[in-house]
Amino acid sequence: MKKILVIGSLNLDIVAEADHIPVVGETIIARYSGQFQGGKGANQACAISKLGGDVVMLGAVGKDDAGDYLLQGLSDNGVDVSNIKRDANEPTGQAWILINKEGNNSITVLPGANYCVDIPYIEEKREIIRNSDIIVMQLEIPIETVCYTARIAKELEKTVILDPAPAVKDLPETLFRDTDYIKPNESELTILTGCSVEDYKNGADQLISKGVKNVIVSLGADGVYCHPQDTSPFFRPAHIVEVKDTTAAGDSFLAAITLGLSRGDDLDKSISFAQKVASIVVTRQGAQASIPDVAELDY
């Protein structure tokens, strides 16, 4: 099995439930749900480990109780957290998550220590990159760090997997060329390419033309569209389940694809496995707490 390195965010998730997500100027009453270990990077690292992967994480938290809580959660789930930075000047990142009655969410993130994942820190950890096979990143850490790391990884002939969330316009072209697999959802694809949500096939074509090797578009309840490097594009319908909370669905989906690739599976098989994992995650509440372990899956 290949060694996986996740470089990304760790957040304390504060979750509430409401009948609907408010529009601008509207005040609503929500029901407190709880605090959970989260952050896109941490969620993905946790999921990879729970599903049986060999994973190290790089990131940053504050020297506070929230940081202790997040590191303990990852460690308890088998993630190597020994190289995560503790920053005395910034608080641990936080995310406020509001879930509507359909299980969809709206998320506001305060980065805090996540923005301390800077280029000097990556340089300090270059040997960890050298000793890894697959590098997974998201965009909840500084963009310049993501681009710098992707360039190093490609120089070292590593596989780079990018979750472009939260999506931003005008990502550097070099990042696309240094990315082997990119996994936007439909709204992120729109931001990255300017294509409409319905025109996701053209959006995927645009990313391929920018130099990305493989594009995987998660379409939520509508399924998955994949434009691979070496074979024809294909579509996979979603599993039909009763949705409770979609918070970690995308993170667990990407984690499961990464795990499949680390085991030598092709992209089609990896996506099928990822859909199975995500279909379980959305029926449970919380981020890392909702991720199944390998014993729950026939893999």
How is this structure best summarized?
With 299 residues, the chain is an alpha/beta fold. It is built from 10 helices and 14 strands. The longest helix has 15 residues, at 267-281.
Oligomeric category: single chain
- Overall structural domain count: 1
Termini separation comes to 14 Å
Shape: globular
Class from helix and strand fractions: alpha/beta
Structural write-up:
The chain is of the alpha/beta class and 299 residues long. The protein contains 10 helices and 14 strands. It has helices at residues 40-50, 65-76, 119-124, 126-130, 143-155, 173-177, 186-193, 200-209, 249-262, 267-281; strands spanning 4-7, 11-17, 31-38, 55-58, 60-62, 85-87, 93-99, 105-110, 134-137, 159-162, 181-182, 214-218, 224-227, 234-236. The strands form 3 sheets. Strands 4-1-9-10-11-12-13-14 form an 8-stranded mixed beta sheet, sandwiched between helices. A 4-stranded mixed beta sheet has the order 3-2-7-8. Strands 5-6 form a two-stranded parallel sheet. A hairpin with a 5-residue loop joins strand 7 (93-99) and strand 8 (105-110). Helix 7 (186-193) crosses helix 8 and helix 9 packs antiparallel against helix 10. The model has no long low-confidence stretch (mean pLDDT 92).
